[in-house]
Design a protein that fits this description.
7-stranded mixed β-sheet, alpha+beta, 5 domains, about 50% helix, Calcium-transporting ATPase, cytoplasmic transduction domain A, Alpha-Beta Plaits, about 700 residues
Length: about 700
């Protein structure tokens, strides 16, 4: 290994400069491949940048190279995208080591099973005496280490259950595997005619398939509480004698004075010291319009400063900030949802003890009948294997995997293991409004010239204000004009110079117009007025028509715009609801027996999404909201929301059918095993046939409409 240069090691690194490929940003406003190309091309000329890659599904940008976070954020701002730095240490996105381990164990079990079956063919073909014993010994040498290695997921779970004196599905599974391997070893050492190492391996292999399929349904789940923490500002500009000092937020104290630049997220809760501030609270409270705050107003961590730079005095830091308290609410809500008992686990509570009692009864019965302990033990093992819950273990994962694949092709990403079961049970839907059902929209005047459109585009893309972002999106295909010296006036708008003229975009009253809406002025020309509206998300009307459940809107937006928008969709509405009020309302519905599907997109919805019986978030949602949800809608349209619920209900129906198939199979196979007509190997083959039947039945969901 090459040693580092001591002189280089001694030189302190500049603040906020990244050397390792660990700089990442949340990009909540990207929505298509064109956004990816625009961002990656727009950043490629930054000094020190080696690569920039956008992940559309995660809405995340990864930057590699020696480039400051502020430089990347400024470049993204110029490109017209809101960007929020993420702390990767807080995200703690670990690799899927569990999934790789299951896949490796499954591969080892499958390879060993095939080899042992080849040896078994020789025995079945007539090998006797020393030759048969040799093949059995070779089979034992292959099977025993593989069973010990590949069966660990079942053995560990079974041991954990037995330690607290209870039974789960892995107890009979482990017992069947161990008894089949142990009895086969006993027969081999005593020159027995039959050994069932292939049965033990095939049992392990098929059960690992089910376990891996179940794990895949959980793979996308991440902690929303960690996402909230990752979204926090990691450094702040602390005011000190002679200027500012970049300080870790963890080192701030109550009473510290901080400078918050334009477009930056507020790092801690505090009191505003400047005369006024324009604050975007949409992510935190759901309020669609930016809020103008006066001196001594209360500001909260997570809000965005849209106006001129402001100063504030910290009033809450660390665990006491609004953002941290919200993260704690989300964590509590997630724990409540994770306590939901999956269908297979509920079946195991009855199934596992019944299997053990049946196998024990078979052993005792045959000891009484013929007094042959070896034969009685073989019958008991056959009963354990033939009743082994392989089909039962595959019943739900097989359906879930097929349903998740079908939903993904429709643009719905299912993230939680029990999401489909809970979606099938919902009887009420609660929607957030801003960003979920509605999108800010700006209507262009009919007489807008190309030059005016280009100027408006240049000014709009330089601001984080919601209306500016909406205008920027409306003018998506317009090339911005070369406007120089763009500045933003807090609470009013932007101005700059274009071809020797002063150009302005902002409040109409600021421009000398008659309206307070969004207006543009070029030089001394008359003011051009844009019509700002909220438009329903694509497909939402079709979705509401297709849903057979009561729906309502619960939003943090003000009463007037919330009521007007709800009336357009024909829905009831509860306005002015803060995050804790949304959470409290959902909990009150749960106490009355309602099973609520929550659909939301902002930080203010995160706790409610985690607490709801089931939850859905659009792809445009903030990372934390997407993580808290069970399902993420990857397309812009909500039109297929009714089909999502129908597929969830069909998944529950097919899972119940698979349980019935497993039960019918047991009703036929168990008497055969109890009567002593099924060897452990025949039992393993029958078990495999039932598993394949369950897998085929699960595929029916791919054709649901």
């Amino acid at each position: 290994m090459t040693a580092a240069c001591p002189a280089c090691v001694a030189v302190p690194m500049p603040d906020n400069v990244l050397v390792a490929p660990d700089l990442q940003f949340s990009l909540p406003s990207i929505h298509c491949a064109a956004c990816i190309g625009k961002i990656e091309r727009g950043l490629q000329d930054l000094p020190g940048l080696r690569s920039a890659r956008v992940n559309l599904s995660l809405k995340r940008l990864t930057v590699t190279g020696t480039v400051a976070a502020e430089v990347v954020a400024a470049a993204l701002h110029q490109l017209g995208y809101a960007a929020y730095p993420l702390d990767l240490a807080a995200l703690n996105t670990a690799r899927d080591t569990q999934g790789r381990a299951l896949l490796l164990r499954m591969a080892v079990a499958g390879f060993a099973m095939m080899n042992v079956m080849l040896l078994s063919v020789a025995v079945w073909s007539g090998a006797t005496d020393a030759t048969r014993d040799l093949f059995h010994l070779i089979s034992a040498m292959i099977a025993l280490p593989v069973v010990a290695y590949s069966g660990q997921p079942f053995f560990q779970n079974a041991w954990q259950a037995l330690r607290v004196r209870r039974l789960n599905m892995d107890v009979p599974i482990s017992l069947a595997i161990l008894l089949a391997a142990g009895m086969s070893l006993y027969e081999t050492l005593n020159s027995g005619a039959h050994a069932y190492f292939d049965a033990a391996l095939s049992l392990t292999f098929f059960l690992l398939i089910g376990r891996y399929m179940d794990h895949r349904t959980r793979l996308a789940a991440r902690s929303a509480a960690k996402e909230l923490t990752a979204l926090e500002v990691q450094t702040a500009q602390k005011l000190v004698a002679g200027g500012t000092k970049t300080t870790p937020v963890s080192d701030l104290c109550i009473g510290d004075h901080l400078l918050v630049p334009t477009g930056a997220r507020i790092p801690v809760d505090g009191m505003l010291l400047t005369d006024s501030a324009l604050i975007d609270r949409a992510f935190l409270t759901g309020e669609s319009a930016a809020v103008t705050c006066g001196p001594h107003s209360t500001l909260q961590a997570g809000e965005i400063n849209l106006g001129a730079p402001i100063t504030l005095q910290a009033t809450a830091v660390g665990e006491d900030t609004t953002l941290r308290r919200m993260a704690q609410m989300v964590a509590v809500a997630e724990n409540g949802r994770n306590s939901y008992t999956a269908m297979a686990d509920r079946a195991a509570q009855v199934y596992a003890p019944a299997v053990h009692l049946l196998a024990f009864a078979a052993f005792i019965g045959w000891v009484v009948v013929d007094g042959d302990v070896r034969h009685a033990l073989n019958v008991a093992i056959a009963v354990l294997i033939i009743t082994c819950p392989c089909a039962l273990g595959l019943a739900v994962p097989a359906v879930s995997t097929a349903a998740i694949g079908r939903l993904f092709s429709m643009g719905y990403l299912v993230k939680h293991a029990t999401a489909l079961e809970r979606l099938a049970e919902v009887d009420r839907i609660v929607f957030d409004k801003t960003g979920t059902l509605s999108r800010p929209s700006v209507r262009l005047p009919d007489d807008l010239t190309d030059e005016a459109a280009r100027v408006a585009k240049a000014l709009a893309q330089a601001s984080h204000h919601p209306l500016s972002r909406a205008l920027d999106a409306t003018l998506d295909k317009i090339t911005p004009a070369d406007v120089k010296d763009v500045c933003e006036v807090s609470g009013q708008g932007l101005f700059g110079n274009w071809r020797g003229q002063r150009v302005k975009l902002g409040r109409g009253t600021w421009l000398g117009g008659m309206t307070d809406g969004l207006c543009l002025q070029i030089g001394d020309a008359p003011v051009i007025t844009f019509t700002a509206t909220e438009e329903p998300r694509a497909g939402i009307s079709d979705a509401l028509e297709g849903l057979d459940l009561p729906c309502e809107i619960v939003t943090g937006d003000a009463t007037a715009p919330a009521t007007d928008f709800a009336a357009r969709l024909g829905l009831a509405v509860k306005p002015d609801m803060r995050p804790e009020q949304k959470l409290s309302y959902l909990r009150s519905l749960a106490t009355t027996g309602d099973r609520v599907l929550m659909v939301g997109d902002g930080l203010n919805d995160t706790a409610a999404l985690a607490a709801a019986h089931a939850s859905v978030a659009p792809a445009s949602a903030l990372d934390a909201a997407r993580s808290a949800s069970d399902v993420v809608v990857l397309t812009d349209s909500f039109a297929k929301l009714p089909l999502l619920i129908r597929i969830a209900r069909l998944a529950r129906h097919l899972s119940q059918q698979n349980f019935a198939i497993a039960t019918i199979y047991n009703c036929i196979a168990v008497p055969v095993a109890l009567a002593g007509y099924a060897t452990p190997l025949a039992a393993a083959l029958a078990m495999s046939a039932s598993s394949i039947t369950v897998l085929l039945n699960a595929q029916r969901i791919r054709f649901a409409t």
